Amino acid sequence: MRLPRALNLNENPAQFGIFFSANRLILFISRSALQMDRVLRVLY
């Protein structure tokens, strides 16, 4: 089974890099949003 072009490192490293960093950014944002939610619940 071949990987899709966007996920194949050899074919498109730049696109993979963008995909990877976007994934990390989304994870970071969702984690901080969860923490903010907890903080707000404590405050109110």
Could you explain the architecture of this structure?
By secondary structure, the chain is mostly helical. Helix content is 70%, strand content 0%. The longest helix is centred in the middle third of the chain and has 31 residues. It starts with 12 loop residues before the first helix and ends with a helix. The mean pLDDT is 80.
Which tags fit this structure?
44 residues, single chain, 70% helix, mainly alpha
Q: How do you describe this structure in short?
A:
With 44 residues, the chain is mainly α. The protein has one helix and no strands.
Main sheet makeup:
none
Helix content: over 70%
Low-confidence stretches: none
- The whole-number mean of residue pLDDT values reads 80
Topology:
Elements: H1 13-43
